[in-house]
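New to this. Help decode the following:
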Amino acid sequence: MHPKRAVTLDGMKQSVLTRYRTMAYVTGVLLILLTLGVIAKYALGISGAAGFTTAVGIAHGWLYVVYLVLAFDLGTKAKWPIGRLAWVLLAGTIPTAVFFVERRVSREVAPLVAAPEPASA
């Protein structure tokens, strides 16, 4: 395999993990903000919370779809079983779960990204 090509492939694999991690954090932060907005709106009766909750809810909804696509891409490339993939996909719907799942996924996938490509026969 050509050395320059190997660097490009490894860079592409790293970018898959980086995109997933970025969207995991974005999704997690928005979900926490949405949870706080819902608490402020319904439990505390704060008047300005309705607009905030709507805006954050819309943003989380659309960006969660991007998270799903990127997590699915990472999971298929890492050849995860369907149960594990489902858990990673659902983590974006449980406040704070996505942070723990992202950390575990990153620890597991990072060595695979750093591993050299097997030589083609």
